[in-house]
Design goal:
Blueprint: H1 2-10, H2 32-36, E1 40-43, H3 47-51, E2 54-58, E3 61-64, H4 81-89, H5 93-105, H6 116-148, E4 151-156, E5 159-164, E6 173-177, E7 185-191, E8 197-201, H7 203-206, E9 211-215, H8 218-223, H9 227-231, E10 236-239, E11 250-255, E12 258-263, E13 267-268, E14 273-275, E15 279-286, H10 292-295, H11 306-343, H12 355-369, H13 376-395, E16 409-410, E17 422-427, E18 434-445, E19 448-450, E20 458-459, H14 484-492, H15 496-507, E21 512-516, E22 519-523, H16 527-538, E23 541-546, E24 550-555, E25 558-568, E26 576-582, E27 588-594, H17 596-599, H18 610-622, E28 626-635, H19 637-651, H20 657-668, E29 673-684, H21 688-697, E30 701-705, H22 710-719, E31 728-730, H23 732-745, E32 764-769, H24 770-778, H25 784-793, H26 807-811, H27 813-824, H28 838-851, E33 855-859, H29 863-877, E34 880-885, H30 891-896, E35 899-903, H31 910-913, E36 917-919, H32 924-962, H33 975-985, H34 987-996, H35 1002-1007, H36 1013-1016, H37 1023-1048, H38 1060-1082, H39 1088-1108, H40 1111-1116, H41 1126-1131, H42 1134-1161, H43 1166-1172, H44 1207-1212, ...
Parallel strand pairs: 17-30, 17-34, 19-20, 30-33, 31-32, 32-33, 34-35, 35-36
Antiparallel strand pairs: 1-10, 2-3, 4-5, 4-6, 6-15, 7-13, 7-15, 8-9, 8-14, 10-11, 11-12, 16-36, 18-19, 18-29, 21-22, 23-24, 24-25, 25-26, 26-27, 27-28, 28-29
Helix pairs in contact: 4-6, 5-6, 6-13, 11-12, 13-32, 13-34, 15-16, 19-20, 21-32, 23-25, 23-28, 28-29, 32-34, 32-37, 32-38, 33-39, 34-39, 37-38, 37-42, 38-42
InterPro entries: ATPase_P-typ_cyto_dom_N (IPR023299), ATPase_P-typ_P_site (IPR018303), ATPase_P-typ_TM_dom_sf (IPR023298), ATPase_P-typ_transduc_dom_A_sf (IPR008250), HAD-like_sf (IPR036412), HAD_sf (IPR023214), P-type_ATPase_IV (IPR006539), P-type_ATPase_N (IPR032631)
Protein name: Phospholipid-transporting ATPase
Subcellular location: Cytoplasmic vesicle, Secretory vesicle, Acrosome membrane; Endoplasmic reticulum membrane; Membrane
Length: 1246
């Protein structure tokens, strides 16, 4: 495992090179335990062999051990949909409560309402949610079908035929062409490239844009040279069981009585894209859900919003309250019954049961009667509100991305309000923040800056007239770097520094070249090298070809051949690459390019252009351009001979070979002459810096989780303004020192409140990598000091940065932090024995430290580690998290976060398929959260608050009425009023609030992102707001019931409403009008539609009341329609209208006055509060300087070069340059060329 981990982090350093393993008759004794662990047995071209292996599932049930290549991300199938969906729905406490109420309502002895009153809404609610889940799952089935039906060429019999991905099985031999996506985890058998190399792009796997090479075993490379031999191939692979370790693989190939070791360098992972390789062949090792990328995708989580979870708790609270109230009313009924029995014993004959039994049944009657306190209509309307807000997101043209024809899409319709409560965003880098396009932007040669205004002696770029490279037939028209001044200097051939500058770019690289249709096509291992060599090509220094020991250039029309004497390869420790060549004139030169931090310290003392070059590098860094320094030196013959002799001796050492070579390289790379620097732009997605700036104002913290290298991720973070120059950047040692301080000074910290507070003027950022994350979170049983010693001993941990590591220790920042906390907290001892394990406490401390950082950058992390980071923040911070990405490596993170956003980019569609929301670009996230998210949160909160109020304003009167009907459970209102109250009379205003309400316009919401913090703090709906709504509704019901009762007491006459039915109509109408007035007061976004909804609500009440209280329906069913002409009797009396008006006035004016007072006393808005806030006094002084690499004079290094080690060895050993021509031709001639009909009939990949 450690070997695989090192290969993962150092990207398969080819000491011996993949594919160069020797055969052995059997496994060594030392490897016997490892060989015994090889339980995954795959045989090539043999389906029958694999069918014999079965896995026990349960008791006597077995299934095939080896999965097919079918991918299923959908949750349901035809048979499991109904039971599984009902099972998920009844995880909601409200649904369980409704089901229990419906069951009780079906018992005649205790039922107080018709059976359909509660049963029909419950069925409707379940059907609506089931339909929504079904529609979402149908979309997943379609996405799965698209992926599973992608075509590929599979060896069947003795020829390759086109088949679908889903038909692949382990052991199948697959043929892939250039730009193909690998359909399963394959063992590379052979390729059309020299030495059976295969170049892959793993951006969809680990986010890295540079190409990586994989190599077949030498035995398969030499033997499997045509289709006939591949058809007869019967090799057997023994390897480890499927796992999620993306960069580790151990196994062996058994063939012809010999064994050949396998590692990750021989494996092509599902989701990779074949690059710069005409044809390659592989055998399926892992298929379907056994592939490493699918093992990292995680499981589908049932996502619930904070409001949904809160409502579940409130339902429990309401239910318990109803139980208490029903119990109290039942007890009161029992007391009344006992008194009735004592005073009027002759009436007791009407009752068949005892007092206790009657009270028991009355308890259930009241529980059913008051069950409408938790109305199902609220949950039904909430589903329509969620659906409507999702449609508005889909319709928003401001989030439409025209280049990809990609509108915003809400794939989940139940998370809209949670978009307004996000506190943490976890973002991928490659393809999410960046465009994956690198462009040569500027350069500095001998102190002069070309391509734009720069410091010192700068030469600006004039606008080119036409194509400035017409004189160069090799020029690449895609290059956008133009500078007329530099072109004239190059063409004049007089400036030696300029000539050597472009010569370094044309010679010092590992690029391969092919000629296709009389055009030069470069095959670069990284986009950085391709950008640099293309710039040299356009300025007349064209790389034409290379052999094992020569490299040929076309320099301004003159062909020159350089003899390559040595190639000193790039790696992440050296941060530079050098090539030692002999010029055609016979002189020997060393050309070097690398990071400014390593080049500048190796320069000759007398460097006139060093100061101006450093100023140019500082300017490039401010623009977040990726920089490289170029240098060279001439080497005399005697020095070279002595060095060459020692190099030959070091190359054959059996021990410490790499160290000896590094020392020789370092010796040669001294006393260099500085030529200049290059600046490459890693283009960001449109609007990324402004989006991040706006989201940070909204108090949203953004973490970047990427599989790319640390230097690249940090450079991009500066470019998108996630990091700034005045931040204190914490790295591995400082984090471990902080955890050590946690253990030594206060190991009893349990809660976030107990945790020390950081002074406000100190801005922190954190930069870590996947190796550190693993060792920190998986090795927490170690003491912090032991971890620090491991860091110091392990050079790979110090790989990303070589700067000063003891910044915090020198300034005692950890101690000062704790001292500051002691000053801010009471001296009262809080010593308590921790119940949590040491691991949990350190996890909590690490997450809390990270949460105090303004930005966190996690580099070289696997998909599983991304999900782990998200899960840790969710676990310990209890906040709403959002994950955004565009590749398959982001799927696990997207599933784990509370909200997953997938970008439709260049890395496939898996992120979109597993997301809750789909966008075209990262910048649309700003509008999605600050506009649609905040609107949805405001609407849902206001809807819930209003619904609770209106329900209690009507239904609480049932409780007051119980005191006047001997606690008999008699309903106060007409049955049809109760049935239609939530269905017609108040539905439209509720829907308007939930769908169209706006407290701020979209433009204003974007201009004032500070308003977003209301959702993060749960200000609009919480326990306090819920209690306010209960109090408001209760007060309204009290006024309506008792004012009406008081006025109608002991009255008689034609205008009297003291009878039961008239009294019920007055109370109901008063409550309804108070509810309508409340809508008028709380709505802030008035439209014609708003007026229509209010008018229709009143109209529905008038029409339906007229119908249900008509004489015709009374004649048909007096029990169903008992309120005969009650409304007409009430409304025909002027005094009744005055009572209703009095009730409305008494309910409205006090509430309106109280709201005005609260508004006057309310704190200023966040934006105003920031303006009024005085600068905080510093408690102590800490020098807040960046912790990144520094050149001289405190300049931040902007070095970020993507390149894998090992390419130089492939070139010098000739493995990448030569291959038997007959084998290559024979291999390619056997590949079937599909006809146009076959391609049309095959499903296209999405």
């Amino acid at each position: 495992d450690s070997k695989g981990e090192d290969m993962a982090r150092q990207r398969e350093q080819p000491g011996r090179g993949p594919g160069q393993e020797g055969a052995a008759e059997g496994p060594p004794a030392a490897d016997s335990a490892l060989a015994a662990a090889f339980t995954w047995d795959i045989k090539a071209n043999s389906h029958d062999y694999h069918r014999q292996f079965r896995k026990k599932v349960f008791l006597c049930w077995h299934r095939q051990k080896y999965k097919t290549n079918i991918i299923r991300t959908a949750k349901y199938n035809f048979f499991s949909f109904l039971p599984l969906n009902l099972y998920e729905q009844f995880h909601r406490v409200s649904n369980v409560y409704f089901l229990m109420t419906v069951i009780l309502q079906g018992i005649p002895e205790i039922s107080t309402l018709p059976w359909f009153t509660l049963f029909a809404p419950l069925v409707c609610l379940l059907a609506i949610r089931a339909t929504r889940d079904l529609v979402d799952d149908i979309g997943r089935h379609r996405s799965d079908r698209t992926v599973n039906n992608r075509p590929c060429q599979v060896l069947v019999g003795k020829s390759f035929i086109w088949q679908k991905w889903k038909n692949l099985c382990v052991g199948d031999v697959v043929c892939l062409s250039n730009d193909s996506i690998v359909p399963a985890d394959l063992l590379l058998l052979a390729s059309s490239e020299p030495s059976s190399l295969c170049y892959v792009e793993t951006a969809d796997i680990d986010g890295e844009t540079n190409l990586k090479f994989r190599q077949a075993l030498m035995v398969t490379h030499q033997e499997l040279t045509n289709t006939r031999k591949m058809a007869s191939f019967q090799g057997r692979v023994m390897c480890e069981e499927p796992n999620s370790r993306m960069h580790q693989f151990v196994g062996r190939l058994e063939w012809n009585g010999k064994m050949y070791p396998l590692d990750i360098g021989n494996l092509l992972l599902r989701g990779c894209k074949i690059r710069n390789t005409n044809m390659c062949y592989g055998m399926v090792i892992y298929a379907g859900f056994d592939t490493k990328i699918m093992k990292n995708c995680g499981k589908i989580h049932l996502k619930r919003t904070k409001l949904d979870l809160l409502m579940n708790k409130l339902v429990v609270v309401i239910f318990l309250s109803l139980v208490v109230v029903s119990t109290a009313l039942a007890v009161s009924f029992g007391l009344w019954m006992r008194e009735l029995k004592d005073r009027h014993h002759y009436l007791w004959i009407l009752y068949r049961r005892s007092v206790a039994m009657e009270s028991f049944f009355i308890f259930w009657s009241f529980l059913i009667l008051l069950s409408v306190m938790v109305p199902m209509a609220m949950f039904i309307m909430a589903e329509f509100i969620y659906l409507g807000n999702s449609i508005f997101i889909n319709w928003d043209q401001a989030m439409y991305y025209a280049p990809l024809n990609q509108p915003a899409k809400a794939r989940s319709t139940s998370l809209n309000d949670q978009l307004g409560q996000v506190e943490y965003i976890f973002s991928d880098k490659t393809g999410t923040l960046t465009q994956n396009i690198l462009a040569f932007k500027k350069c500095c040669i001998d102190g002069h800056v070309y391509g734009g205004w720069g410091p010192g002696r700068s030469l600006a770029c004039a606008a080119p007239q036409g194509n400035p490279y017409l004189w160069n037939k090799f020029a690449d028209g895609k290059l956008r770097f133009h500078n007329e001044t530099l072109l004239r200097i190059v063409q004049a051939k007089r400036d030696k520094a300029v000539r050597e500058f472009w010569r370094v770019l044309a010679i010092c690289h590992t690029v391969m070249v092919q000629e296709k249709e009389n055009l030069l096509v470069y095959q670069a291992a990284s986009p950085d090298e391709e950008a640099l060599i293309t710039a040299a090509r356009n300025f007349g220094y064209v790389f034409l070809s290379r052999t094992q020991d020569t490299i040929t250039l076309m320099e301004l029309g003159e062909e020159r051949v350089y003899q390559v004497l040595a190639m000193m390869d790039f790696n992440s420790m050296r941060k530079r690459m050098s090539v030692l060549v002999r010029k055609p004139e016979g002189t020997i030169c060393l050309y070097t390019k690398g990071a400014d931090t390593v080049i500048l310290e190796r320069l000759h003392r007398k460097q006139s252009s060093k100061l101006s070059t450093e100023e140019a590098l500082a300017a490039f860094a401010k623009e977040s351009l990726r920089t490289l320094c170029l240098a060279y030196k001439e080497v005399d013959e005697a020095t070279y001979e002595r060095w060459h002799q020692r190099h030959q001796e070091a190359s054959v050492l059996l021990q410490n070979r790499a160290q000896a070579l590094q020392e020789l390289y370092n010796e040669m790379e001294q006393s260099l002459k500085l030529l200049g620097a290059t600046a490459i732009e890693d283009r960001l997605q449109d609007g990324v810096p402004n989006t991040i700036k706006c989201l940070k104002k909204a108090n949203i913290k953004i973490w970047v989780l990427t599989g790319d290298k640390q230097e690249t991720a940090v450079n991009i973070s500066f470019a998108c303004q996630l990091l700034s120059e005045n931040m204190l950047i914490l790295e591995e040692k400082e984090i471990l020192q902080f955890l050590e301080a946690c253990s030594e000074h206060n190991s009893n910290l349990q809660t976030k409140k107990d945790f020390p507070k950081l002074p406000p003027h100190v801005k922190l950022a954190m930069v870590i990598d996947g190796v550190f994350l693993d060792k920190l979170l998986l090795s927490l049983r170690k003491e912090p000091r032991a971890l620090i010693q491991n860091v110091e001993a392990d050079e790979s941990w110090q790989e990303p940065f070589e700067g000063v590591r003891d910044f915090l220790r020198a300034r005692r920042i950890s101690m000062l932090w704790w001292n500051f906390s002691v000053q801010q907290t009471p001296t009262k001892s809080k010593v308590s024995k921790s119940r949590e394990s040491l691991e949990v406490r350190r996890e909590r401390a690490f997450v809390d430290l990270a949460s105090r950082c303004q930005a966190v950058i996690c580099c070289r992390v696997t998909p599983k580690q991304k999900a782990l980071v998200v899960a840790l923040v969710k676990k310990y911070q209890q906040v709403v998290t959002l994950a955004i990405g565009d590749g398959a490596n982001d799927v696990n993170m997207i599933k784990t976060a509370d909200i997953g956003v997938g970008l439709a980019g260049q890395e496939g569609t898996q992120a979109v398929q597993n997301s809750d929301f789909a966008l075209g670009q990262f910048c649309f996230l700003q509008r999605l959260l600050l506009v649609h998210g905040r609107w949805s949160y405001v609407r849902v909160c206001k809807f819930l608050r209003y619904f609770v109020y209106k329900t209690l304003a009507i239904m609480m009167a049932q409780i007051w009425f119980a005191f006047y009907n001997s606690f008999s459970g008699q309903p106060l209102y007409e049955g049809w009023f109760l049935a239609l109250f939530n269905l017609l009379y108040t539905t439209l205003p509720c829907l308007y609030i939930g769908l169209f309400e706006q407290d701020m316009s979209a433009q204003r919401s974007l201009q004032m992102p500070e308003l977003y913090m209301a959702g993060q703090k749960n200000e609009l709906f919480n326990y306090w707001v819920f209690l306010q709504a209960i109090a408001h509704g209760t007060a309204t019901s009290l006024v309506n019931f008792f004012m009406t009762l008081w006025i109608s007491w002991d009255t008689a006459g034609p205008c009297s409403f003291s009878d039961f039915q008239s009294f019920a109509v007055v109370v109901a109408l008063s409550g309804l009008l108070c509810i309508i007035v409340e809508v008028i007061l709380i709505i802030k976004y008035w439209t014609v539609l708003c007026v229509v909804t209010i008018v229709l609500s009143l109209g529905f009440y008038g029409v339906m009341t007229y119908i249900t209280q008509s004489y015709r329906l009374y004649r048909i069913s007096p029990k169903t329609f008992p309120f005969l002409y009650a409304d007409r009797n009430v409304l025909s009396c002027p005094s009744t209208m005055l009572v209703i008006l009095l009730n409305i006035t008494l309910n409205t004016l006090p509430v309106l006055a109280l709201r005005m007072i609260c508004q006057a006393l309310k704190k200023p808005r966040p934006k105003e509060e920031v303006k009024e806030e005085a600068p905080a006094e510093e408690i102590f002084t800490v020098e807040s300087v960046p912790r990144l690499h520094r050149g001289s004079r405190g300049r931040r290094s902007s070095y970020a070069f993507c390149h894998d080690e090992g390419y130089a060895d492939l070139i010098t050993q000739g493995k990448i340059l030569q291959r038997p021509q007959e084998s290559s031709n024979e291999l390619e001639s056997d590949i079937p060329v599909p006809s146009e009909e076959e391609l049309l009939s095959s499903p296209n990949s999405s």
